[in-house]
What we know:
By secondary structure, this protein is α/β, with parallel strands linked by helices. Helix content is 45%, strand content 15%.
Amino acid sequence: MKSVLVTGAAGFIGVNYVRRRLEVGDERMVALDSLTYAGNGRSLEPLVGDRLDFVNGDIRDTELVEKLIRQHDCGTIVHFAAESHVDRSISGPDAFISTNVDGTHSLLKAARNCWLSGDAMPHRFHHVSTDEVYGSLTASDPPFSEENQYQPNSPYSASKAASDHLVRAYHHTFGLDVTTTNCSNNYGPYQFPEKLIPLMIVKILHGEALPVYGDGMQIRDWLYVEDHCRAIELCLEKGVAGEVYNIGGDNERPNIEIVHSLCDMMESRILGSEALAERFPDCPASRGDSNRDLISHVTDRPGHDRRYAIDYSKAEAELGYVPEHTFSTGFERTIDWYLAEEAWWRSVMDGSYRDWIDTNYQGRG
Ligand code: NAD
Ligand code: DAU
């Protein structure tokens, strides 16, 4: 059986995908990640073994990618690696163009060189993309379908849109077997606490102000990460080369409602557990106050998209995809994970995991 090259495997969705495949699959995987601030090799380290290799390297290094494809006999690439945070793309767009556009192109070149020169071999390049490429919806617009026009509004979404076009072009022009999924906002274990949900969880525990951008009425379609990983599996199994599938969570909610729910759910956890109240004495609920008192409306994100929503009827009809998690099951699991894995989020927040990376991976490729 051929191996699978998973790029960005040390990031949020990549770690969840690799963990899940180790449980439910039987393929060998090569995890390629350059361990940016968002990648945590330590999340993968315990999983490295017979079925998983980890390589600290950059997707922009075409030669390295080609070497890995040949050396490990990879027949599939699942491409997660990216700069993924919209706010960072506003303060510093360059890295987004470099990794998301040039990096994706480098992977496509390597895949073409390995898979299409000489005797073409069966292969699949799966590109993981975002609903943000479609722009912003009004309250009355229908959800994004695969037919929506691309109208990316941030440097992040523009860079992802460019990468989607390159993937499409490599199929159309060179015959590379590609599929793309465009999905909505993921949440769950191992998400870096700069994104809304983990950021709010950690801030509630520390009793810090919860920065809600603008009026907080921006809407996202929240997707539990395990459902997203399942959708990718289905796409690899049943997706048709050259096709694009939208993946959503059936869970449209305004940001302020998400923040209220997190405040309230964490309040009931703390009120029900003296041990938790002792561990997190700065959390308002630990001293009998309301977590909602922490909410602070701050200046809005420039160019902030108002609403995303996903029509996943094509994925449902052609892949058999439907989300299995509801708002409440997904949120309960996520909160449980962050309460149990305090050491993980503390190490990514204080940067101490970087010392471990420097010790373990300096100079290795
Ligand atoms: P993330 O930021 O948590 O992880 C990205 C990973 O890519 C990190 O481990 C990082 O070290 C690695 N990486 C970055 N640049 C690299 C490079 N040049 N070479 C090799 N590795 C590199 O991101 P995520 O949330 O896990 O998102 C994964 C993918 O899914 C991205 O392509 C993103 O655009 C897409 N996506 C994410 C969401 C979401 O809600 N998180 C939704 C839709 C689509
Ligand atoms: O829609 C898919 C996209 O979802 C992915 O492609 C991106 O990689 C991922 O980061 C995410 O983008 P968003 O910008 O929607 O996610 P973020 O968690 O940054 O913000 C979610 C919403 O919450 C958004 O409307 C901005 C708002 N927000 C965010 C932060 C970090 C706040 O109000 N306050 C905050 O502090």
